Amino acid sequence: MDMRPDFDDIFMDLAVNLAKRSHCIKKHVGAVLTKDTRIISIGYNGPPAGTHNCDIEFPEHGCARDSKGSCSLALHAEQNAILYAVKNNTAVEGSTLYVTLAPCLACARIIFSMGISKVIYLFSYAEYKGIGSDEGVDFLRKFGVSVEKYAKEILVADPLI
C-alpha cells in the first residue's frame, strides 16, 4: 500500500497553510494554482502588496467594508494566485485551483475567463456568508469548469480559516 500523500492532499494542505499568512481580521483564505502536478502560483487574501496590513493598521475592525460586507481593499486568494502567475508570464489555462473557501461569484468569473479547468475547495462560501447557494460554484459548473468539494478531513487549527 502506497503511504505517500496524493497531490490533492499536498496542495490543499499548502492552501490551508498559506491562509495562515493572511492579515485579514475576518477570514483567512489560501489558494494554490497547479498544472500537471506542479505548483505554478500561490496566493492568500489581503490588500495589494505594498499597501497595508489590516490586522496592523486596522486591528479592531479591519479595513472598510463594501455594500456586501466584504473587505473593500483586499484581493481574494484566488485573485492573488492568478495575478501573480500572469504577472510572471505563467500560463494558467488548463490549470487546477485549490482554495480553502469556495470562490465567490466575482472570482468565479475570473477563474472561468482565465481558462482554469478545475477548482477544488475546502469550505463553502455560502455557509460562511450566510447566503442560499455557492453562486461562484454554480457559475463555474454552468459554464463547464469542474468543481469539487475537497472530500477528506483536514486539521485546521486557525479559527479564521
TrEMBL record:
Keywords for this protein: Hydrolase, Metal-binding, Zinc
Family annotation (Pfam families): dCMP_cyt_deam_1 (PF00383)
Family annotation (InterPro entries): APOBEC/CMP_deaminase_Zn-bd (IPR016192), CMP_dCMP_dom (IPR002125), Cytidine_deaminase-like (IPR016193), dCMP_deaminase-rel (IPR015517), Deoxycytidylate_deaminase_dom (IPR035105)
PROSITE patterns in alphabetical order: CYT_DCMP_DEAMINASES_1, CYT_DCMP_DEAMINASES_2
Record-level Gene Ontology MF annotations: dCMP deaminase activity; zinc ion binding
Start and end residues of each CMP/dCMP-type deaminase domain: 6-135
Cofactor dependence: Zn(2+)
Domain of life from the UniProt record: Bacteria
GO cellular component assignments: cytoplasm
PANTHER family assigned to the protein according to its UniProt record, in alphabetical order: DEOXYCYTIDYLATE DEAMINASE (PTHR11086:SF18), DEOXYCYTIDYLATE DEAMINASE-RELATED (PTHR11086)
Family: Belongs to the cytidine and deoxycytidylate deaminase family.
Designated name of the protein: Cytidine deaminase
Origin species: Algoriphagus sanaruensis
